[in-house]
Write a sequence for this structure.
């Protein structure tokens, strides 16, 4: 079992930046593919960004390309989401998630709120 705890959310003005962290505990973190998702009010949860176990492969939703980056520190069991040039439409609860290769995401954090004011 993997436990995930997000932090770093908050209120920021449009054009600003935030860095979210996701701390993992439990089973070996380095073997998991990590992803960030978000859910805005009244909308379905959507994939934002993902990173493989080594950090060498990343996946981005088109809406965040060029603005968001993902990284991980396996020694610290932590994955980071750096969000730059934030827009009001980025407002959502952000969740980190973990999955094993070839599997569905099965471990989820509780989420952290990101609010971008215009």
């Amino acid at each position: 079992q993997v436990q995930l705890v997000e932090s770093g959310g908050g209120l920021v003005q449009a054009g600003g930046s935030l860095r979210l962290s996701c701390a993992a505990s439990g089973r070996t973190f380095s073997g998991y593919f990590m992803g960030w998702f978000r859910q805005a009010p009244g909308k379905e949860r959507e994939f934002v960004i993902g990173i493989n176990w080594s950090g060498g492969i990343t996946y981005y939703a088109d809406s965040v390309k060029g603005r968001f980056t993902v990284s991980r520190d396996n020694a610290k069991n932590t994955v980071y989401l750096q969000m730059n040039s934030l827009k009001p439409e980025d407002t959502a609860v952000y969740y980190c998630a973990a999955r094993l290769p070839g599997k569905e995401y099965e471990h989820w954090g509780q989420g952290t709120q990101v609010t971008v004011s215009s």
